[in-house]
Design goal:
Distance between the termini: 106 Å
Order of helices and strands: EEHHEEEE
Oligomer: single chain
Strand content: 15-25%
Largest sheet: 2 strands, antiparallel
Length: 124
């Protein structure tokens, strides 16, 4: 796209701002969706204290049948990598078969039993 610069009368190459293109794509629905995803990413970063990322991809297909004057299909895709909470870990031991178990297999087992209780005490 060219325009004539008023001061000099020369042709100047102009381009449409990408933000305006994204804002108008699909009558603004794309911009609304991307904004929601972006604010969700901001909330997740704030909540978990870890970095996240968002990638916006503009996909341009060639005109149908290679006809130069045919319309070009353009799509906008977004991908969000929001941080997640760190999963809680638990400690396990490996038994002789390599299986995770909660009790240390090298620890000797103690034969514990319940002792009856009483409320009567002997005087010293």
């Amino acid at each position: 796209m060219t325009a004539i610069q008023p001061e000099t009368g020369t042709d100047v190459e102009t381009t449409a701002p990408i933000a305006a293109f994204i804002a108008s794509h699909l009558n603004g629905r794309t911009e609304e969706e991307i904004s929601r995803e972006f604010h969700g990413l901001l909330d997740a970063v704030r909540a978990h204290g870890k970095k996240g990322s968002m990638t916006i991809t503009i996909v341009v297909d060639p005109p149908a049948n290679g006809v130069e004057s045919a319309p070009m299909p353009i799509g906008i895709e977004s991908a969000v990598k929001a941080p997640k909470p760190t999963p809680v870990k638990s400690l396990y031991f490996l038994d002789d078969d390599g299986q995770p178990v909660r009790e240390d297999p090298r620890q000797l087992a103690m034969d514990l039993r319940v002792v009856p209780t009483t409320t009567e005490f002997k005087k010293a």
